[in-house]
# Entry
Amino acid sequence: MRWPRRAAGSLDRVEFPLWPTLIAVVAAVLIIRLGMKLLGGFARPVPPPPDPGELRKVRLTYECAICATTVRMTMANDEVPEPPRHCMEDMVLTTSPDDL
# Structure
């Protein structure tokens, strides 16, 4: 959009482009609100851990005796939970007794 020209020394009012300005202001407000919502999502605290006794931190390693697949268990409901099954057989606990 072009600005209208004034004659030298003229005191006529220059026409202001109203619609492009309103669209720019609305777009700026929407972009700012979207940015604030995105930043607000990062500011939320980490949810509290589950109740004690529900899950415990463990560091157990199991291995399948048939195909040698290895699994590391990090959370369990017991100190030494039942071994997982793989290839239709119970996996073997390979963690050393010192780590239990």
